[in-house]
């Protein structure tokens, strides 16, 4: 399937095909609202399952998790759901440390050992 670019700025890229959103780069709070809106526009009124791939996200950022949770809420508004969720190692550690893993349906194990990171970028 061919991926369509939904957002591309400053090395941050959001792409989608028929059933998957894929985010890469280093999102932060400066572009989180635009990313959330671009993803919600693609999600539309879906009432089926989608896959979300965040393996290309290079750093742990609460901004990225906020965008993900916004997409999840949007899907729930239309009875949609996340069937498969893949996180980068940095995001997996952040989700584990923050206790969000249980709120992320479809989360696939990354095999990453979870230890408290030395620092987490909250920007």
UniProtKB/TrEMBL annotation:
Domain of life where this protein originates: Bacteria
This protein's name: STAS domain-containing protein
Record PROSITE patterns: STAS (PS50801)
Name of a matching Pfam family: STAS_2
CDD domains named among the record's database cross-references: STAS_anti-anti-sigma_factors (cd07043)
SUPFAM superfamilies cross-referenced by the UniProt entry: SpoIIaa-like
Start and end residues of each STAS domain: 21-123
InterPro entries assigned: MlaB-like_STAS, STAS_dom, STAS_dom_sf
């Amino acid at each position: 399937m061919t991926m369509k670019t939904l957002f591309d700025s400053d090395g941050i890229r959001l792409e989608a095909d028929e059933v998957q959103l894929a985010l890469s780069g280093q999102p932060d709070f400066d572009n989180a609202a635009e990313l959330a809106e671009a993803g919600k526009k693609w999600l539309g009124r879906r009432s089926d399952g989608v896959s979300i791939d965040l393996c290309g996200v290079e750093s742990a950022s609460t901004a990225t998790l906020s965008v993900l949770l916004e997409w999840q809420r949007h899907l729930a508004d239309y009875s949609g759901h996340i069937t498969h969720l893949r996180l980068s190692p940095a995001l997996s550690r952040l989700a584990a440390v923050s206790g969000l893993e249980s709120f992320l349906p479809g989360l696939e194990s990354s095999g990453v050992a979870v230890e408290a990171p030395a620092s987490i970028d909250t920007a």
